[in-house]
Amino acid sequence: MKMKPVFFKLSLLLLALIMGGQWIDAKEIGDRNQGSAPALAGKIYVLTCYVSQMGWIPEEVEQYSSLVIEAEDWLVAQAKSYGKEVSFENAECGLEPPLLLESIVSGSGSGYEPVDMVSKVMKKLGYKDGRKFVKWVKKHTDCTGCLVLIVANQPGRGYSMAYNNAYDKKMYFLEGSMLYNSYESGEPACALSIAHEMCHLFGAEDLYATFIQTEENEARARELFPDDVMLSVSYDTDSKKIDRLTAWLVGLTDEMEEWYMSFLCKGE
Questions:
Q1: Tell me, what's the pLDDT at 143?
Q2: Gap between the Cα atoms of 90 and 211, Å rounded
Q3: 61 vs 96: CA distance, rounded Å
Q4: Which residues pair with 161 in a beta bridge?
Q5: Is the model's pLDDT at 51 over the cut of 60?
């Protein structure tokens, strides 16, 4: 699920069309081509931060780390199906010493989850501004993009904090997802849930009904993109794919249909 800061519920696209009827640069529609992870392209630095209130068990870390790699491998394969080369460089933190937080909200899909988690965690790591971490990545690696995965060892529903050029750069430019090692039901997390949230950071939109997306669009997506990872996830990675709308949003293809726009930015 993609989260938006509370001050930016109105679609920039709709605002532009209402005020002047002018078409805007397709590179910057929604969250596309913006932030520290502008597209699913090139080499991407992934910092996984294991947060907790009491620390992680090593076996739990090993299990979740394997899910991150599985998610990345799936994204690499999806990119390849569109003729694109993508790779990832991984780093982890929060284990020794543990990255402890006083409280951790379990995501529930309400739309009221905290959207400043990346900023909070990076300050714990010594970065007052997430852009300084982006600069570090550019200076010390050959990666073209970077993102943060914040993982809590408790149940919850994952959500992502994708950047938009209307947001405060200091607070939101470094993009990240809040993840949990199990769902609210108690079932263990799956790799495609991680891939789903990462796709948000590259510019993808939810295709199921949320506080942003409409039920009407979910019904249309079930007809047009029934296997898209932004519509639903599964423990079976072979059962899902990045379909053409999501592929365009994350930068895997330049092929775009005007009706794609009806799936974007439906929040009030």
A1: 98
A2: 32
A3: 12
A4: 3, 176
A5: yes
